[in-house]
Amino acid sequence: MRFRATVLATILTICTLSLSVFIALPVGAQGTVFAPQYPGLDTWGALQLKVWPNGYFIWTDEQGLHVRWTAAQGQTHRFNGQATVQGRIASFSRAYPGVSAVRQQGNRILWNMSNSGGGDGFDFAVNPGDVVQFSLLLDGRNATRQEIYLGARGYHPAANPFALTFQPQIAVAPGSPIDPAQDSRRSNRRSNIWGAPQFSVWPTGYYIWTDDQGVHLRWTSAQGQQHRFNGQATVQGRLTAFSPAYPGVSAVRQRGNNMQWNASNSGGGDGFDFTMNQGDVVQFSLKIDDRMGTQDEIFLGVNGRHPRQNPFNIRH
User: Fold this and answer.
1) Is the peptide bond preceding residue 311 cis, with omega within 30 degrees of 0?
2) What pLDDT digit, counting tens, does each position of 90-137 carry?
3) DSSP per position, 8-49
4) What's the pLDDT at 208?
5) CA distance 251 to 311
6) CB 263 within 8 A of CB 220
7) Hey, is 187 helix, strand or coil?
8) What is each CA distance from 271 to 101, 219, 246, 313, in whole angstroms?
9) How many angstroms separate the Cα of 216 from the Cα of each of 73, 209, 272?
């Protein structure tokens, strides 16, 4: 799936509702006036950052649309605004039920709350082809383009307010699983592993994804369980950068173009990040409790897809 960002063609009048300070956009006979749609930015997959700035973060995946906001560490800001669907909201849920000051009114979702870090937001789903118009405020002003991050690559919209069209399309992105028994040039046998998987409850297993920063491997045990994870990843080419996810703690070591690990885990996750040259291949051999991990215990990309077998290769 991907969203296509669009710039509003008309000037939107912002007015304040008494007591609520929510935003009201111009309306016509059928509701909000939406901008013309044209090809734009890819919003597939959640952005991954080590340090989160002030701002809004919007992405899409197979579950629908996700909106989050947060204040930078040590700061407090007020976030308010609305998302209006030209169509029907098929489902809606708060990121943190019972805490979030987010509400749905028909085809609109509105929020108005203070944030001191940690994030908040909501998730929702619409039908293919529906348009969602966002008007995002931060401390009572329109958030700047640079304070709005779209998809796993953190693109900025051309303006704010802006509209996105929900398109059920899956694009092949850099980083694709390759069946070791097949010719790696057969692109029709590859799957998309761009963007980090998203789960509300994380099962025991390995999680591998790619983004603009390189290749990422994580593992975790399901809540209340403890497992041992060990294995290796070997680059057939040149390993250009390597870093443990938690330096000083991770039981991961690098030797040349080979990365190995052997660690017990009771939840919370561990792993490492690395980069290699474009076109190089990395082979993964992943074990859990000293046995080869099953296909269903390995999750690739934002879709959480499974490889055909283990060991397996990925070409970047």
Assistant:
1) yes
2) 999 998 876 668 999 999 999 999 998 878 899 999 988 889 999 999
3) -SSPPPPEE-TTT--EE--EETTEEPPPPP------BSB---
4) 94
5) 21
6) no
7) helix
8) 35, 6, 8, 18
9) 24, 5, 6
